[in-house]
Design a protein that fits this description.
Length: 191
């Protein structure tokens, strides 16, 4: 069975591909040397609670919309939840197509805090957090919504690097995928 590699789409110059991989590897190696128990605990907390936030945001909007009889809020809940669901499916599909191994499997110098079993590209935590942040920011374009939403998404994304479970290019692709998914479903927002 032939495997597709997204990295084959990058410049055909072999040196460029190796340079990008060396860049990815070096960032993770450098981060692992600067870990502390406190930071590791904090970033594990962020990674472990990402799904709760991604489910809690639309659930909270829906509950508030039902309690307050607010149709717009219920529609926004549907938009955020739909964005998350579509993004999760697309992310899983891309992971199965690309099949990029996790950093700790590809390079013995990369020490992960724990070892997830699924493929690395793109970062699912990053794509889901950016989908939620983007959809919520589109639904409520106020600084006090946008700033914490993207602070959360950025922190979750960084946690994936810090923990040694994703390459920087996995995280960048996840952010682009998550943001794009939410933007592509903007038609679901209330008028």
């Amino acid at each position: 069975m032939m495997q597709f590699s997204l990295f084959a789409l990058l410049p055909t110059n072999s040196y460029s591909q190796h340079a990008l991989q060396r860049f990815d590897d070096q960032i993770l190696i450098d981060l692992s040397k600067k870990r502390t128990p406190e930071k590791t605990g904090f970033f594990l907390f962020l990674s472990n609670h990402n799904d709760w936030v991604n489910i809690g945001v639309p659930a909270g909007l829906l509950a508030a919309g039902v309690i307050g009889d607010n149709k717009e809020m219920r529609q926004n809940a549907l938009y955020v939840a739909s964005s998350s669901a579509v993004n999760a499916l697309v992310t899983m599909l891309v992971k199965k197509i690309v099949k990029r191994p996790r950093p700790f499997l590809a390079n013995v110098k990369i020490n992960a805090v724990y070892q997830p079993k699924h493929y690395s590209f793109p970062s699912g935590h990053t794509s889901t957090s950016f989908t939620t942040a983007t959809a919520l920011s589109q639904a409520y374009p106020k600084w006090y919504v946008i700033a914490p939403a993207y602070l959360w998404a950025g922190s979750v994304s960084y946690s994936r690097l810090y923990l040694g479970v994703h390459y920087p290019t996995d995280v960048a692709a996840g952010a682009i995928l998550g943001t794009s998914t939410a933007f592509s479903l903007r038609f679901m927002r209330p008028d």
